[in-house]
From TrEMBL:
Record-annotated PBP domain positions: 37-327
Alphabetic keyword roster: Phosphate transport, Transport
Matching InterPro entries: ABC_phos-bd_PstS (IPR005673), PBP_domain (IPR024370), Phosphate-bind_PstS (IPR050962)
Pfam families in UniProt: PBP_like_2
Family: Belongs to the PstS family.
Domain of life per record: Bacteria
The keyword Transport appears for this protein: yes
Gene3D superfamilies attached to this UniProt entry: Periplasmic binding protein-like II (3.40.190.10)
Transport keyword on record: yes
Segments forming a coiled coil: none
Name recorded for this polypeptide: Phosphate-binding protein
Organism listed in the record: Nostoc favosum CHAB5714
PANTHER family: PHOSPHATE-BINDING PROTEIN PSTS
Length: 359
């Protein structure tokens, strides 16, 4: 009888021991993951959102330390190539030539989206009382903002600016263009758009993360350009929407391909993104001149760049965990800060691509 009970006791104990061992293993894995430290660098475009994400994620995972430096897309990609970071961020993804230099493989994941705006520093414009339902921001036609960046329109009361802004008392004030000095995905997105709408811009300046600006002064990062616009009366420059919003800078309504003047809003940016089709192989695509009637014309995804292979499996798993959190829980912060949440289709694409990390 005693032997029988002892035998049954072993039968009951074995599953319990297996469960306890599994719990211990999971706890050890979580403990290892929770103690990991990750370092990233790159685009300033998504930096305010990354800052919020890393704070929120750390509160939920207090032993996971993720640091991010907004040093520009070019510098971020270069650090990924050199292997000095665990991940990077870029507003233009990564080129095939750049990816070929990374022996561990590279994966580009669209992580959020937003608009690039033309913010300016002018005293509040006075409008004639007979004008009704006139937007509070200035309207800039396609050719006008190209010519401002080309240095061909140099004063705010220029007749061509006035023509698009009836009822507005424009100041007799020089235009001071402000641009980026660092290699910037934001610059690349803007100059791709300018090249798409202006043959003159394409031939004289072209597109790139760094270009030879015909006029203007430079600032480093979105934050540097924003600061200069704030400091200089008559300044105009290009920044990510969040920077203009947070600093309460007026933003121009830009003429789109359809001929409508569109203010950057979550709705107008979402209209543009609907036309962007991400290829299955690398999830990188742009739309340089959207055709939608209500589409804001300068919109981009921004990408989180990872290696495919990590020598440290714990780091790989920690990064995958963070990415999964970012495309689900993290998207709730996007709209609040002025970014555009990923569509469900794009979320599924990102989750599928992120599974390759560590394989």
């Amino acid at each position: 009888m005693s032997a029988q009970l002892q035998s049954k006791g072993h039968i009951y104990l074995l599953p319990l021991i297996a469960i306890l061992l599994n719990i211990a293993s999971c706890t050890a894995n979580n403990r290892n993951i929770n103690r990991v430290s990750l370092v990233g660098a790159g685009a300033s475009f998504p930096a305010p959102l990354y800052e919020r994400w890393l704070l929120d994620y750390n509160q939920q995972n207090p032993n996971v330390e993720i640091n991010y430096q907004a040093i520009g897309s070019s510098a971020g990609v270069q650090q990924l190539i050199e292997g000095t970071v665990d991940f990077a961020a870029s507003d233009v993804g990564i080129t095939n030539e750049q990816a070929a230099k990374i022996k561990r493989g590279a994966i580009a994941l669209p992580i959020t989206a937003g608009s690039i705006v033309l913010a300016y520093n002018l005293a509040p414009v006075a409008r004639q009382s007979s004008q009704v339902n006139v937007p509070t921001g200035l309207n800039l036609s396609r050719q006008v903002y190209v010519d401002i960046f080309l240095g061909k329109i140099t004063n705010w009361n220029h007749p061509r600016i006035a023509a698009a802004n009836p009822g507005v008392n424009l100041p007799d004030l020089p235009i001071q263009v402000v641009h980026r000095t660092d290699g910037s995905g934001t610059t690349s997105v803007l100059t791709q758009h300018l090249s798409a709408i202006s043959p003159e811009w394409k031939s004289k300046v072209a597109a790139g993360k760094s270009v030879a600006w015909p006029v203007g002064i430079g600032g480093k990062g979105n934050e540097g350009v924003t600061a200069l616009i704030q400091q200089i009366p008559g300044a105009i420059g290009y920044v990510e929407y969040v920077y203009a919003k947070q600093n309460k800078l007026p933003m121009a309504a830009l003429e789109n391909k359809f001929g409508n003047y569109i203010t950057p809003t979550p709705e107008s940016v979402a209209q543009t993104l609907e036309a962007v089709k991400l290829p299955a192989d690398n999830l990188i695509a742009f739309i340089t001149d959207p055709i939608g009637a209500q589409s804001y014309p300068i919109v981009t995804y921004t990408w989180l760049l990872t290696y495919q292979q990590y020598p440290n499996r714990v780091k790989a798993q920690a990064l995958k965990n963070f990415i999964d959190w970012a495309v689900i829980d993290g998207q709730k912060s996007s709209l609040e800060l002025g970014y555009i949440p990923l569509s469900q289709k794009v979320v599924l694409q990102v989750q599928s691509a992120a599974k390759k990390i560590g394989e």
